[in-house]
Amino acid sequence: MLTKKDTWILNLTGLIVSIVTIFVLWRQFYIFVDFTLLFGFLFTLSYNGQNNLRLLGSSLFIALILSLPGLWISNPIKPGFFYFLVYCFHYTYHRSGNLWHMNYRLLFEAAWNGILVLLVAVLFLLASAVLIFCASFLFSSQGSPFVFNLIYTNTGRLFQLFLTWLLLFIGIGVAQYHIKTLCQLRFILLMSMYYLLPILVIISSVVLILLWNIDLNPNAIITVFFELTLLGILFLNAYYQDGSDEIKRLVWLNWLLRGYKVLLLLMILIANYYAFRYVSIELSQLIYLTILLFLGWFYAYSAFFSDERAQNVVENGNKCFAIVFIAAFYFVIASPFNFTVNKEKAPLSLWHGADSIGKNGAQ
């Protein structure tokens, strides 16, 4: 449980990071922007009021390593998920103090807490934006448009960014102060997933049946199976980390779970088939698809073991492939090497797939 002093430390960190970020943008030192923001997020999201100097040093070191490729290459890849995985390992290292023995429960806690803290921070940012807009509108109606112009026009672009980052970090501080309450929400979400499993299995089965009767473009099919796969992986990890023996003793749930693991692998295989045959794949996308494929095989493999043994297989698979993903993706970011599979075909795009699904649903 953090104290008010810890909250002020987080807010002060956010203020310093926001000021430095705006300064380097103003001076056009763009290569330092990633370093500053990465440090801010790594420090504030992992903060627990203990070993602050070690957290400060590890946050600076990891932010430096992650931002180094920007010194010699400008890569259009948006590595958001890559950064999030690095944060999870950094969170685990800070909480355990052990670099080589990564506790999977801490990794899972890092992922869930990080998502919920960022969600609260974004909600805080949006609520603040509404209040600021109302205030600026009132000032404008009284013949003083300075505040409105400063925040909502291009003349105050740097101030807009400063305010955005500052409010976001304040939101992180608010969420971290109430982290125990958020943890209770996490357990509610995990518990509700047990009741969603039958629905997810039915939806996945129906999609597999309808796949052969619906004329969709490859991006739409890949998008559908990608979303179902993410939900499946989310559920599987929730199942193994809830710790409820009463639920795990349900025979029908265990057998349904085993069958769903095989179904999950089938969906991953179909998504990979359509991706490699019908669309062009960038190197970063190739890493996603390959890791997802091996992860699917691991999950299907765990279906043939008892519940405890299956949990170990899933946990070890997640940790190993997360490390491989981080190493491979960092190579993609740091390397000028550019490689595309099926370069002559239409590019793989989940956004285009979702747009195609929306248009078909509207017809």
Strand content: under 5%
State the separation between the terminal residues, measured CA to CA.
Answer: 52 Å
Largest sheet composition: 2 strands, antiparallel
Oligomer: single chain
Domains, number = 2
Q: Would you list the SSEs in sequence order as H and E?
A: HHHHHHHHHHHEHHEH
Strand order of the largest sheet: 1-2
| Class derived from helix and strand content | mainly alpha
Morphology call: globular
Radius of gyration: 23 Å
Average pLDDT, rounded to a whole number, is 83
How much helicity do the residues have?
over 70%
Low-confidence stretches: none
Number of helices: 14
Tell me how many strands there are.
2
Keywords: Membrane, Transmembrane, Transmembrane helix
Protein name: Transmembrane protein
Transmembrane segments: 7-25, 31-48, 55-73, 115-138, 158-175, 187-214, 220-240, 252-274, 286-306, 318-339
Describe this entry's structure for a reader:
The chain has about 375 residues and is mainly α. It has helices spanning about 5-25, 30-45, 50-65, 80-95, 105-140, 145-150, 155-175, 180-210, 220-240, 245-250, 250-280, 285-300, 305-335, 350-360, and strands at about 280, 340. Strands 1-2 form a two-stranded antiparallel sheet. About 30% of the residues are buried.
Question: How are the secondary structure elements laid out?
Answer:
Blueprint lengths: L3 H23 L4 H16 L5 H16 L12 H17 L7 H38 L4 H7 L4 H21 L1 H32 L7 H24 L3 H4 L2 H28 L2 E2 H20 L4 H28 L5 E2 L8 H13 L1
Antiparallel strand pairs: 1-2
Helix pairs in contact: 1-2, 1-7, 2-3, 2-4, 2-7, 4-5, 5-6, 5-7, 5-8, 8-9, 8-11, 9-11, 9-14, 11-12, 12-13
Keywords: Membrane, Transmembrane, Transmembrane helix
Protein name: Transmembrane protein
Organism: Legionella waltersii
